[in-house]
Amino acid sequence: MKELHGAGVALVTPFQQDGSIDFEALSKLIDFQIDGGMDYLVSLGTTGEVATLSKEEKLAVWKFTAEKVAGRVPLVAGIGGNNTSQVVEDIAAFDVAGYCAILSVSPYYSKPTQTGIYAHYKAIAEVSKLPIILYNVPSRTGSSISPATTIQLAKDFDNIVATKEASGNFAQFNEIMRDKPEDFLLISGDDPITLPMMSIGAVGLISVVANAYPAETASLVHLCAEGNYAEARPIHEKLLRSIDLCFAEANPCGVKYMLQELGIGSDVVRLPLVPVSENVQNLIKREMVDLAN
């Protein structure tokens, strides 16, 4: 799965002022990412506010994105949830044209046991026509995929090929790297710790801040992949404040405001999210000016 090495971005879903999907802005965003050097794109990951989209809207975004990308870079589709039967149905019915993998978040809210998490991904693996990336983000889901469960899934299912790890737990990362099959991939799901994660063997990043800073994010990941941490570190440090502001008042509210400042779509989000406060807007504006100088 060389397609999953390097810098990936979890695309936001731009909205018009009336809350409908802004396909013109999405088109601009896709070009901005590819022109900035991103290696692959993720359509409708959790950053894409997928929980607020209808089935018809999701199908329209996936189709539009595949047609717009037109094979220029690999594409990953985000399909996950805590209703296993619905996730299985969606993955089985997914039109794979233009896509190379599926990113599927661990079931949220239900807080299943490790046995339940294993069974959830087993059901997905048995129907998926594409390789699967596990997504472990316990701060959002309320439970964590243990290293043992990750490794067992990787060993038992050839089409479970990677994990996007956003647990922040380096003991967990080390255990995965030590015990995983050789071709199973560890991917950073957490912008601020990508550099140290890559130093222990992660193959890249699926980023949020790259929506607004694709060139910088791509440079950071590519330098880390080359083992050039001396040159990567200043870029890492340069992006840290922007990363904090992305999450200051819930993702993707911060990065959508950054994109609005760049002339790519609006800062409109769907409830229960709301746009960032005036205070955070001012902080973002100042940081964007500082980064531009």
Automatic annotation (TrEMBL):
It is an enzyme of class 4 (lyase). Pyruvate binds at residues 47, 206. It catalyses: L-aspartate 4-semialdehyde + pyruvate = (2S,4S)-4-hydroxy-2,3,4,5-tetrahydrodipicolinate + H2O + H(+). Pathway: Amino-acid biosynthesis; L-lysine biosynthesis via DAP pathway; (S)-tetrahydrodipicolinate from L-aspartate: step 3/4. The record marks 46, 109 as: Part of a proton relay during catalysis. Keywords: Amino-acid biosynthesis, Cytoplasm, Diaminopimelate biosynthesis, Lyase, Lysine biosynthesis, Schiff base. CDD domains: DHDPS (cd00950). One of its GO terms (molecular function) is 4-hydroxy-tetrahydrodipicolinate synthase activity. Its EC number is 4.3.3.7. It holds the Pfam family DHDPS. Gene3D superfamilies: Aldolase class I (3.20.20.70). The active site is at 135 (proton donor/acceptor), 164 (schiff-base intermediate with substrate). It is found in: Cytoplasm. InterPro entries: Aldolase_TIM, DapA, DapA-like. Belongs to the DapA family. Catalyzes the condensation of (S)-aspartate-beta-semialdehyde [(S)-ASA] and pyruvate to 4-hydroxy-tetrahydrodipicolinate (HTPA). Homotetramer; dimer of dimers. This is 4-hydroxy-tetrahydrodipicolinate synthase.
